[in-house]
Each structure stands twice: as structure tokens, then as C-alpha cells.
Design brief:
The chain is an alpha/beta fold and 488 residues long. The protein has 19 helices and 13 strands. The strands form two sheets. A ten-stranded mixed β-sheet has the order 1-2-3-4-5-6-7-8-9-10. The longest helix has 17 residues.
């Protein structure tokens, strides 16, 4: 055998034994596989986590978590038992090494961030902002973002069965935290969905609808099925993608009889009408791919939908090595039949600097994972550039590595640039984490943060943000260079 930088080996999936966790020692297999039981036993606060993990986890961990929730977290805590159980899968609390492994665990690092994880020097990038992708500015009706010429994003609800610490929609999704008040939709849900359908009927140039949120697993099934059925009745809609991290976080939901039967009906209608329906999920670590996740993905494929694909997020401490990405991709592809599709660079939201990678690091990872997976299953590493959209990391036009500013161009107008003559010639910026820059670059950002624009670029501004509003037309849109303007 030739020695390779990555050593492929098939790894059989195993469901970690939840009975090793004191709070769930008596939970039966039937309870564990019940979506209702999973939802009812989600961990929502430090006290509930202590009840599950027990007193043999050091108090310093719980205190670190509580401090993060109080002072930094942009997402409230919500972790289904399925996900808690994949943290430190081989050890029980109290066994030697458990506490250290919990601090280092990839799933813990992004689902239960602790204060000491975050950077003390630059917790947020000076250009970070809520709704960093400006999705609400591109709402053509509340919750419907029209950013690309032929495709739209429908945010059908603002909740999920699990909340990820790095959520790019921290502006809208989830419950308020002590430091972030969330935007609330103004329209009642059914009016909002009806308005989206009216827009799509009136705009036959749109052929592709991402039905997202939030997570579609939190929309009552009959409502989701009705909405997707109405989408399929629009002649111009050819592709529908249902976004659900819960396929991994709460696979029990996708295995319920109601959902399987409903997906079979949708898949049958889709085949009749020549529409492709796929599920897009969000798995960041190989250990999250358990037999239950594989069963849920296969159950969905058996309904006759087109595909189940994964869009992960590159996060330092979670998956930012070629080995971690390839282990994840092979687990998805070989064992769960989930297609590796994208890895996004983490967006420029507040509090994300300890997770974010530089563009150069992302380019290196793309290079390192080439050639191991089949071409059709080699994920593209992409940067979601504000006002531009997803760009493969090697498509950058210019890159100032000293200040960590990359410049990008695009070949279409978003919904807010219909009359903008410079939209297709302008360069759009994305920013590397300041702490990774050489000293002259860090000095430049320190001076900028301390200067007259300080108020506009500080973390407080990033957290306060601007309220979401449909068809926003603020100054950031025209010049893309306001002091604080800044990326799913
Ligand atoms: S599942 Fe998606 S939308 Fe929900 S919190 Fe996680 S990243 Fe955000």
C-alpha cells in the first residue's frame, strides 16, 4: 500500500449507549426511538444538562457554559438527546478523561459553546453583523429571500428542534438570549406562506425553492405537506429542497409513520409532475452519523425523493482538518447514503471568531480533500459572500492577506439591485478573522476599531444590528462599505 496523507478506512456506525449517561440510565429503546420522547427531553438549560450528565462532570464546565449563555450566546440552548448522546460517545461521565474529552468534543463545541471557547481578544469581527447575509433585505415578501436569479429561500418558520451555536440566522431563529433579542415575523404564518406562493406564481423565472427556516421538522407535517403540494402545483417550480438538520439531530422524527407516508405522497406527486424533491441536512462531525441517522436518510430515499444531501459548516475545533472532513464525508456517503454537497465557511455573525477560518485555510482544506471521494460526492468548500451568494473558495478575485480582506465578483443581480449599474462590476468583501492576521493587519484593525467609526463597528453594533424588514434599502446596500456592514 502507498502511504497517503489520508488513510481511508471504512468505519461501521454505532449508536452510542445513552444508558451511560446517568439521567438516561433507565431509558428504554422504545423511548429513545420515539420522536415525542426526544422532543420532551431536549436539554434547554444548564440544570437539565447537569441532570443528564450528573455530578461527576466538573462544576467548572457548567459554570463556563452558564457564563456563555449569559454573556455571549447568540442562540439559546436546545439539544435533543440524540445529539447529547453523540458527545464523547465512548466514555461515561466520571470515567478517566471524560471531562477533558467533553471540553474537546466537536459536537459539544458547536452545540454547547462555553465562554472559554471564545476569543477574548476578538470575540466578534468588527464587520460582523446580525443577518450577515442580508437575507431580510432581499425579502420579496416576508420570509422569502430572492437572492439568485432562478432560486429563492423560503423561511417558513423561525424555530428548529435543535439550536446550533453558530447559526447564521441568529437574527431570526430561536428564542431570545440575554444578549440577542430576536426578530419576529410580522405576518401570521399562513398569510406569510400564502404570500410566498403568490410571488412564485407571479414570477415564473424562479424554478428552485429551498424550504427552510428554521427547520422544516418543526412545521406540523400536514402544513408542510400542503405547502410543498402547492409549490409543486406551480408549473415553473422544478426543484424543491427541504432543509432539516433534524434528519441528524432528531432522526426519530423523519422515521415516524406520518412523515414517511407523507413523504411518499409528495415523492409520488413530484414524479408525476417532473419535480425533484430533496432533503438537505446539516451534519458537521462524523460521530453524528449514527445508525438511526442512516435509517432516517435511507427511509427518506425509499419514499422516492431525488436525494438527501449534506451542507456542513467549517468550524475550527469541530471539523477543520482534512481527516475530519473526509471521515465525515465517507460516513455520510457509505453508511447513510447522504451526498456530501457543500461545506460553508462560517458566516460573519457576532461571537463566531473562534470558529471561523480564513479563506486561505478553507482553500487549503478544499485542496486537501480532492481526489479521495468520487467526483460527484466531493463537497465544494464555499464562502457565502454578502450580497453575492455562494462562491467556491478558489473563485476569489483578489485577496489582501495582510488585512484579511477577500474581494469577490458576481454575474447576476439580487432582488435589491435591479437598478444598480455597478452590481456586476463591483467587488464585494469578505473578512478573515483578525486574530489570524500578521501583526500589521491586526494593528490596522485595532486602529480602525478604536477610531471614529468604533461605535459603528464594535460588537454592540453587531449584536444590535438593524431590524429585519422586507425590501430593505439601507445605505449598506448601495455602497457595501458602511462601517459595520458586512453571510447558511
Ligand atoms: S438547524 Fe439550521 S437554522 Fe436551526 S439553529 Fe441550526 S443552523 Fe440555525
Amino acid at each position: 500500500m502507498i502511504d497517503q496523507p489520508y488513510a481511508y478506512r471504512r468505519a461501521e456506525l454505532a449508536e452510542p449507549d445513552w444508558r451511560r449517561l446517568p439521567g438516561w440510565a433507565a431509558v428504554t429503546e422504545a423511548e429513545w426511538e420515539s420522536a415525542q420522547w426526544q422532543r420532551a427531553h431536549c436539554v434547554k438549560n444548564v440544570r437539565q444538562l447537569r441532570d443528564v450528565l450528573g455530578p461527576r462532570v466538573p462544576e467548572s464546565f457548567y459554570a463556563d457554559l452558564a457564563r456563555d449563555q449569559a454573556e455571549r450566546a447568540t442562540m439559546s440552548m436546545l439539544v435533543p438527546p440524540q445529539m447529547v448522546n453523540t458527545m464523547v460517545p465512548a466514555l461515561a461521565p466520571g470515567q478517566p478523561g471524560f471531562a477533558e474529552a467533553l471540553f474537546a468534543d466537536p459536537v459539544r463545541r458547536y452545540m454547547l459553546p462555553v465562554f472559554s471557547d471564545r476569543r477574548a481578544d476578538w470575540p466578534s469581527h468588527p464587520m460582523a453583523s446580525r443577518d450577515s447575509l442580508h437575507e431580510a433585505e432581499m425579502w420579496v415578501t416576508e420570509g422569502l429571500t430572492h437572492r439568485y436569479p432562478t432560486k429563492v429561500l423560503a423561511e417558513v418558520l423561525p424555530t428548529c428542534p435543535q439550536y446550533c451555536g453558530h447559526c447564521t440566522r441568529m437574527d431570526l431563529v430561536g428564542n431570545p438570549t440575554p444578549v440577542v433579542a430576536k426578530h419576529k415575523f410580522g405576518m401570521p404564518r399562513d398569510d406569510r406562506l400564502a404570500a410566498m406562493l403568490r410571488y412564485l406564481r407571479a414570477n415564473p423565472g424562479v424554478r428552485d425553492v429551498v424550504v427552510s427556516g428554521g427547520d422544516v421538522a418543526n412545521l406540523p407535517w400536514p402544513r408542510l405537506e400542503a405547502f410543498v403540494g402547492e409549490l409543486m402545483a406551480i408549473d415553473s417550480v422544478r426543484d424543491i429542497r427541504l432543509a432539516s438538520k433534524a434528519l441528524m439531530g432528531l432522526p426519530q422524527y423523519w422515521l415516524t409513520g406520518e412523515v414517511r407516508a407523507g413523504m411518499e405522497r409528495l415523492a409520488a406527486t413530484a414524479r408525476r409532475r417532473g419535480v425533484s424533491i430533496a432533503i438537505h441536512t446539516h451534519v458537521n462531525a462524523a460521530q453524528s452519523v449514527t445508525p438511526l441517522v442512516a435509517r432516517a436518510a435511507r427511509a427518506m430515499l425509499e419514499t422516492g425523493i431525488r436525494d438527501v444531501r449534506n451542507q456542513g459548516v467549517l468550524l475550527r475545533g469541530v471539523n477543520a482538518t482534512a481527516d475530519a472532513l473526509l471521515d465525515l464525508c465517507f460516513a455520510l456517503l457509505d453508511e447513510a447514503k447522504i451526498m456530501p454537497y457543500y461545506f460553508y465557511m462560517c458566516d460573519m455573525i457576532p461571537g463566531a471568531e473562534h470558529w471561523r477560518l480564513s479563506l486561505a485555510e478553507a482553500q487549503r482544506l478544499q485542496q486537501q480533500i480532492m481526489g479521495y471521494l468520487p467526483g460527484f460526492a466531493t463537497p465544494r468548500v464555499v464562502c457565502d459572500v454578502p450580497y453575492v451568494g455562494k462562491r467556491w473558495v478558489h473563485q476569489v478575485a483578489r485577496y489582501d492577506t495582510e488585512r484579511g480582506i477577500s474581494y469577490w465578483t458576481k454575474n447576476y443581480r439580487t432582488a435589491v439591485e435591479a437598478g444598480d449599474p455597478l452590481a456586476l462590476s463591483r467587488e464585494y468583501e469578505y473578512y478573515d478573522p483578525v486574530h489570524l492576521l500578521p501583526e500589521p493587519g491586526q494593528r490596522w484593525w485595532r486602529a480602525r476599531a478604536a477610531g471614529p467609526a468604533r461605535e459603528a463597528v464594535g460588537p454592540a453594533r453587531a449584536l444590535a444590528g438593524r431590524p429585519r424588514s422586507a425590501r430593505g434599502s439601507g445605505p449598506d446596500r448601495a455602497g457595501h462599505q458602511p462601517a459595520g456592514a458586512a453571510g447558511a
